[in-house]
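1st attempt posting a full record on here, be nice pls
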Amino acid sequence: MDAHMNFITRRCDICLEQVPVAESERPGYEHVHCYHCIQANAARALGSTAFELAKCCKVFPLALLEQAGALTGNGEMVEYTRKLEEHTDPRNKVYCHDQDCSKFIPNDSRTRRVGTCSCGKKTCKSCDQEKLREVEENGRSLRQLADRKGWRCCPNCLTVIEKTVGCNKVECTCGQHFCYRCGEPFYSQFNPHHCPAVNQG
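the predicted structure (as tokens):
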């Protein structure tokens, strides 16, 4: 922004102070916020017991918070981003199975079947229970049995599926469509699967 903009001021609609235009924004073309008020809004949101988004008439985008110098403390922006994901992401949520922890496990800390909490404990995405070695061993035994029987595992949730009749295009209970013959997923009608056995019984 031009240097002369530092000398042009406008009133912050929140604190009612005259502030430089270069140090204020009008989020969503609504009320003028000075950077100090944006910072205070974000700090309040992060510290709220029942999480509330940093917002006025509209939610403040993360880029605005960064521009205003909000949430610059140790790990604050990461924590806010994860809370934002927890409360706005429509996908299934995973929480640590340990009742003394129970923290939200963000998507970047999950694999297909397991979520790893910041406390170090692993939680099964399907049942929200502890991911135990015994479960892994039982799963390995089941997969070995599935291989012998010719059963297939869903490529999304890894549930074992046995098909007795019908075509090879199957749908898992998780909603994933895949080819029973080769195990490859169907992603959309615009990206068709080309397994030659897909319509054979």
